[in-house]
Design a protein that fits this description.
3-stranded antiparallel sheet; Kinase-like_dom_sf; 15 strands; protein serine/threonine kinase activity; Transferase(Phosphotransferase), domain 1
Length: 332
């Protein structure tokens, strides 16, 4: 074990919780992040064995991909519902797996919010935006390029991350290199989840690719590129809100997200998005025809818009690869 102070149920209880997922908790101790997972409670697409295998494979191979420092089995002091193991005192605890990483204090969402500036109250129009986004375009492109470089590596290894979002891009300092974390729902070529029968209930909210929204199970690693493009667009919006919206009066809606994507990028056709032409959900919907000029509403120069134009194509076959994104950002 890398550090005895990290181990033991009693120590874990005293640690600071810094994050929580459906089947995991994340703690910080001594500049380490401990992700505690109960495999027995997991449901697809969450898969601890696959996550661990991927982390062991990519460990130390790319500076923009998180490196696993250690992992071990621990007893969970919070639950005793299944996967039981006995403690020294005879008390029953639930088994959990612990993944140990370096601790990164900042997410990309933290950095983004730091550039959101409040509009002076007297200048706010009725129902208008209350914030202005000042995130520097050059910094946004640098971050996206670094993450794309990491994606290029994992994609070459047959891995799809499947949950690219600002909260999964971490920083040691506000000016350090970004590090992509959380491979909890990632897909690996050759695993039990077949390539043409992948789970589509992956990704998060407004960062999800359209092929996931329409249930196209044979998707590929371009879903990561779409999500990364959404993040670049988010960093360049004028009001500091995500570029695409899924908000409805009583919550969020995938249908609302689809409509907003079509409105901003133009309504797709069988020519611009051949993969969806025979999908029943697409054929049964009637969307108003729009040309889409959403990218023109973003801040920044033509360079960032050209990059986004390639990252946010409907057809995965025409969408930029991770290597393309790196090349575009360096040559434009």
């Amino acid at each position: 074990m890398i550090d005895d102070v990290l181990l033991g149920c009693t120590t874990l209880v005293k640690m600071k919780e810094i994050g929580r997922g459906l089947f995991s908790r994340v703690y910080e101790k001594n500049n380490r992040a401990l992700k505690c997972i109960r495999p027995g409670a997991q449901r697809p697409p969450h898969n601890f064995a696959r996550e661990l295998a991927i982390l062991q494979e990519v460990k130390g191979h790319h500076p923009n991909i998180v490196s696993l420092l250690d992992h071990y089995e621990e007893r969970d002091p919070f639950d005793s519902s299944d996967d039981e193991m006995w403690g020294d005192s005879g008390q029953v605890f639930t088994k959990q797996q612990v993944l140990v990483f370096n601790y990164y204090p900042y997410t990309l969402e933290d950095l983004a919010k730091g550039y959101h500036k409040a509009i002076f109250p007297t200048l706010i129009e009725p129902g208008g935006d209350t914030m202005r986004n000042k995130f520097p375009e050059e910094k946004a492109i640098e971050i996206i390029t670094a993450v794309a470089s990491g994606l290029e590596y994992i994609h070459q290894e047959g891995i799809i991350h499947r949950d690219i979002k600002p909260e999964n891009i971490m920083f040691k300092t506000k000016d350090s290199e970004p590090v992509l974390i959380d491979f909890g729902v990632s897909w690996k070529d050759g695993g039990s989840e077949k390539a043409d029968e992948k789970i589509t209930d992956v990704g998060t909210g407004v960062w999800r690719a359209p092929e996931l929204l329409f249930g196209i199970r044979g998707y590929d690693d371009k879903v990561d590129i779409w999500s990364l493009g959404c993040i670049l667009a988010y960093l360049l919006t004028r009001n500091g809100k995500p570029f695409f919206s899924n908000e409805v009066q009583d919550g969020v809606s995938d249908l609302r997200l689809v409509a907003d994507i079509f409105e901003k990028l133009g309504t797709p056709s069988a020519k611009t998005w051949p993969e969806v032409a025979c999908v029943p959900a697409f054929e049964s919907m009637n969307f108003s025809e729009t040309q889409g000029n959403g990218l023109s509403l973003l801040r920044g120069t033509q360079k960032s818009k050209d990059i986004l134009q390639e990252m946010l194509k409907y057809s995965a076959h025409k969408r930029a690869s991770a290597a393309d994104v790196v090349e575009l950002s360096r040559t434009n």
